[in-house]
Design goal:
By secondary structure, the chain is an all-alpha fold. The protein has two domains: 31-117, no CATH class; 123-316, Orthogonal Bundle (MetI-like fold), CATH 1.10.3720. It is 69% helix and 0% strand. The chain is built from 17 helices and no strands. The protein has helices at residues 2-27, 34-43, 75-85, 91-103, 117-152, 157-171, 174-185, 209-228, 231-247, 250-257, 262-274, 276-280, 282-291, 294-300, 306-316, 319-347, 353-357. Helix 5 (117-152) packs across helix 9, helix 5 crosses helix 13 (282-291) and helix 14 crosses helix 15.
């Protein structure tokens, strides 16, 4: 297993390098770089230097030699901007400079926020972790018992109506369900039970610890429910089908023939084999929820997380934030793939990835 893990770790380097090369190359052809953003502010009469943070000049400009809307501006001003952002260097030099900085865990500063990329990510992380972690935990807590019960009662009316309810829930878009929750429970038209913005109340620091915990869950209840609704279907049906496959195997019939109770057969023998793919996939499911689908939920509930950070960075062409988060999350995603394999071995030691590769 050690040799397999070592090979997977070594594969992270070329995979991550390929991700960065592809995205860096694509940015070269995207119009409206940060310099053009500043030019637009100048032409619009805004304060171009308000919140301006230099440093970081290690990424692509995505613009051209002739900037749109730059007429009337002194060439020296444009040249100073290029030097400030580092766009006076060739793309290849910027790319390798960026990688060298990343190897030293230096991800630069945001162009427009006057804060380092790492600090910016850490600032937004609690919201995304809250949504990703609790959505995944709730999905597992509900879906696994429900899937087992559906497998045991396969073909009954309970199985039929729960399948219909799950499919309907899966078909409802998350943002539509989020709006429905706001209308019903956040003062939209009916009950004012839950808050509509933020992760905590304004007076959170002055609350006692039990009150802080209650306040935290009070704020995330609706966002977590909205982001969880579509996860039930896949996980529940996966659990059900895994149990049905195991229940039909010979070792289950042998265990029943020995006089074991149905509960002992189900949870003492079937559960471990049936839950292999479900439990081992927990890290990947969490990261999937953590990275995807959070932008709309965060926007609807006025939460300032990584989803909104990525969207705003893309709109503003804040390249240090875009490439820094791409590198960090790409590395995390690749590491989670290895962790998922380790979870398979932990759940079922009979699995040997080295022999399978051989």
């Amino acid at each position: 297993m050690g040799a397999y893990i070592l090979r997977r770790l070594l594969l992270i380097i070329p995979t991550l390098l390929g991700i960065m090369i592809i995205n860096f190359t694509l940015v070269q052809f995207v119009p409206g770089g940060p310099i053009e953003q500043i030019i637009a502010q100048v032409q619009g009469g805004g304060d171009v230097f308000e919140g301006f943070a230099g440093g970081g000049g290690e990424v692509a400009s995505g613009g051209s030699e002739e900037y749109a809307g730059a007429r009337g501006l002194p060439p020296d001003f444009i040249a100073d901007l290029e030097r400030e952002f580092g766009f006076d260097k060739p793309p290849v030099e910027r790319f390798f400079g960026m990688l060298w900085n990343y190897m030293r865990l230096d991800f630069g500063e945001s162009y427009f926020r006057s804060i380092s990329v790492i600090d910016l990510v850490l600032e937004k992380m609690p919201v995304s972790i809250s949504l990703g972690l609790w959505s995944t935990v709730i999905a597992y807590i509900v879906s696994i018992p429900l899937g087992i019960h559906k497998a045991v009662r396969d073909g009954t009316s309970f199985d039929t109506w729960t399948s219909a309810a799950i499919i309907v829930a899966y078909a409802i878009p998350g943002f539509l369900f989020a709006i429905l929750l706001l209308v019903l429970f956040a003062g939209g038209s009916y009950w004012q039970i839950f808050p509509i913005r933020g992760l905590t109340s304004d007076n959170w620091t002055s609350l006692s610890w039990p009150a802080k915990i209650a306040d935290y869950f009070w704020h995330i209840a609706l966002p977590v429910l909205a982001s969880t609704i579509s996860a039930f279907a896949t996980l529940t049906l996966l659990t059900k089908n895994s149990f049905l496959d195991e229940i039909k195997k010979h070792y289950v019939m042998t265990a029943r023939a020995k006089g074991l109770t149905e509960r002992r057969v189900l949870y003492g023998h079937v559960f471990r084999n049936a839950m292999l793919i479900v439990i081992a996939g927990f890290p990947a499911v969490f990261i999937g929820v953590f990275f995807s689908g959070s932008l709309i939920i965060e926007t609807i509930f006025s939460l300032d997380g990584l989803g909104r950070l990525g969207f705003e960075a893309a709109v503003a062409r804040d390249y240090p934030v875009i490439f820094g988060t791409l590198f960090i999350f790409g590395l995390i995603g690749l590491a989670v793939g290895i962790l998922s394999d380790l979870m398979y071995v932990l759940v079922d030691p009979r699995i040997d990835f080295e022999k399978r590769e051989g």
